[in-house]
Amino acid sequence: MSELKAIFWDQDGVIIDTEKDGHRVAFNNMFKEFGHDFEWDVDTYGRLLKISGGKERMRHYFTEKGILLEGIPEKDNEFLLTLHKKKTAIFVEMVESGILPLRAGVKRLMQEAMQAGLRLGVCTTANERSANAIAKGMLGDINLEFVLAGDVVSKKKPDPEIYRLALQESGLSPDQCIVIEDSRNGLLAAQAAGLRSVATTNIYTENEDLSPASIVVTSLGDPDGEKGVLKQSAKPFDFDGVLHAEQLIEFFKD
Fold first, then answer.
1. Of 10, 17, 159, 222, which is the active-site residue?
2. Where are the beta strands (DSSP E) in 124-229?
3. What is the CATH number of the domain that holds 196?
4. 30/131 same-domain check
5. Residue 124: inside a domain, yes or no?
6. Active site residue 17
7. Are residues 87 and 211 in the same domain?
8. 239 partner at 20 to 30 Å CA-CA among 92, 154, 176, 232?
9. What is the band of 96 on the pLDDT scale with cuts at 50, 70, 90?
10. Mean pLDDT across the stretch 136-154?
11. Taking all residues of the chain, what is their mean pLDDT, rounded to a whole number?
């Protein structure tokens, strides 16, 4: 019988509902600053989210629309990196200004997990600077053992590399850890690393196939605030709209 010892958290869409009103807005503000006359609407960005990584999304979109590039890989990469650095700076300013609040239940569940002796880490394809702005700012009182972000791995989700690195960093086995994700790509990455998972949905992922998750809820929930709805569970458990650390420990103990 395995005992739960750690929770690995995705960031975008899980810790903060960053995609629609965060990253998408930051991309559009950056495009405007660089003189581009297009912007990513909600539906376009939702389609692009199927591609992990901001630079990768831009490359796909620019190539698709015939906007890019010089055709020289080194210069193309440098161009995309320049755009992405500016977009990240805009996004970090948004995070630090408090425009983008934590999702319901995130800090509460992290605090409960710490009190229960669980170890916590963040595993995200988001840029390292934006990940650290959230981890050291909004979650500054949470003991995060590690923050794995950006180009710390060579392959983005659904490749399992980032979760395998998390297992290496923690020194734990897959059956001692769970992942909290919001998207099919993230769940597939966790599954390929041998990890079980919980999914908390958002506007971009609510209609995705999240069947790899053991539990799917619309929100982690808060006792005095937003309540989640249970959409899927691998086995019955008592859910009143608020997911607690002790419930996860019991649910994943075997």
1. 10
2. 144-148, 177-181, 196-200, 215-217
3. 3.40.50.1000
4. no
5. yes
6. no
7. no
8. 176
9. confident
10. 93
11. 93
Tell me: the pLDDT tens digits for 54-92? 999 999 998 888 876 655 667 788 889 999 999 999 998
* Structural element, H or E, at residue 231: strand 230-233
User: Could you tell me which residues come within 8 angstroms of residue 180 by beta carbon, excluding any fewer than 6 positions away?
Assistant: 7, 8, 9, 10, 14, 197, 198, 199, 200, 220
**12 a catalytic residue:** yes
- If asked whether residues 117 and 89 sit together in one domain, one would say no
| pLDDT of 117 strictly over 90 | yes
Assess whether 215 and 141 both reside in one domain. Answer: yes
Higher pLDDT, 129 or 211: 211
**Helices within the chain (DSSP H only):** 18, 24-33, 42-48, 54-65, 73-97, 106-115, 128-133, 161-170, 184-192, 245-251
Helices 184-192, 161-170: axis angle to 10 degrees equals: 50
Task: List beta partners, residue 146.
Answer: 121
Structure tokens at 248: 């996860």
**254 — pLDDT class (breaks 50, 70, 90):** confident
Q: Catalytic pick from 12, 159, 182, 222?
A: 12
Residues 27 and 10 in one domain: no
Range of the domain at 132: 6-17+102-251
Interval 211-221: pLDDT, tens? 999 999 999 99
Cβ–Cβ under 8 Å, residues 178 and 5: no
8 Å CB contact between 57 and 84: no
* Whether residues 78 and 200 fall in one domain: no
| Whether residues 13 and 23 fall in one domain | no
